[in-house]
Request: fold
Amino acid sequence: MMNNDVLRSVRYMLDLSDSSMVDIFALVDYTVAETDVVDFLRAEDDEAFLAIPDDSMLYFLNGLVIHLRGKKDNEPHVRVKLPNSNNLMLKKLRVAFNLKDEDLQEILKSVDFNVSKPELSALFRAKGHSNYRACGDQFLRNFLKGLTMRIRA
Reply:
């Protein structure tokens, strides 16, 4: 799934302004111009559209964790680990919104996308693990849709 789609979903979900998004980046000492944020949020067919790089997306998600859960005292910022993946974005969103397995299942069930607990846990395994499963675009899209419905309700 495109980073820009995830960024747009989170912005809509939390009703964030452009300046709020810049502030979220700043929480992890990452500087992004407000004009870049505007360009990240544009439609792909707009000539001013700017694809958000993987590292910038991960910095935003790290900042989102701090924005929603607070900063831990005397703990340095979490370093960004590339490459980015749907699994990693799902994991960071899970942490940011403090979601348990049951929450994830409820969110997905609300959009008629039923997932068993073992299938869910496979998404959070390390890539080399025998039970690892890649998070598909459809899964992440449905998760974001369900989470948006939950947050905005």
Observations:
- The CA atoms of residues 89 and 96 lie 10 Å apart.
